[in-house]
């Protein structure tokens, strides 16, 4: 067995090894998908959301098996 160097990509995941930890992202994959479907050319738009309103549990809701 031989060392092939520091791991940078594994199964489509980008791996960054730093002093404070190991970080995994799919940034390259997302960029590829955006380019494929020509979504890089579009304009983004902000949507308003009430950040102060807490989410509440639906007491009448049923549990589901997903």
What does this structure look like?
The protein has one helix and three strands, in the order βββα. With 66 residues, the protein is of the alpha+beta class. It has a domain at 1-39. The protein has a three-stranded antiparallel β-sheet with strand order 1-2-3. The longest helix has 10 residues, at 27-36. The radius of gyration is 20 Å and the shape is extended. It starts with 8 loop residues before the first strand and ends in a 30-residue tail after the last helix.
Short description:
The chain is α+β, with helices and mostly antiparallel strands and 66 residues long. The protein has a domain at 1-39.
What attributes characterize this protein structure?
single chain, 66 residues, alpha+beta, 3-stranded antiparallel β-sheet, 1 helix, extended, Ribonuclease H-like domain-containing protein
Structural class by SSE content: alpha+beta
List low-pLDDT spans.
Answer: none
| Number of H- or I-type helical stretches | 1
Kindly state the percentage of residues in helix: 10-25%
Strand order of the largest sheet: 1-2-3
Task: Let me know the largest β-sheet.
Answer: 3 strands, antiparallel
Oligomeric state as shown: single chain
Strand content: 15-25%
Order of helices and strands: EEEH
Please, what is the average pLDDT?
Answer: 86
- Rounded to the nearest angstrom, the distance between the terminal CA atoms is 42 Å
Gross morphology: extended
